[in-house]
Amino acid sequence: MKNIRNISIAVALIVFNSVFAQVAIGKQTVDGNSTILDFDNTSGNTKGLILPATSGFPAGSLVNGTFIFDVTDNKVKVYENDAWKSLSDTGSSSAIAANNSAEIGKGVIMGEATSSADGVLVLESQNKAMILPQIATPHLNVKNPYPGMMCYDTTSKTLAVFDGSVWNYWK
Question: Which positions carry the signal peptide feature in this UniProt record (predicted)?
Answer without folding.
Answer: 1-21
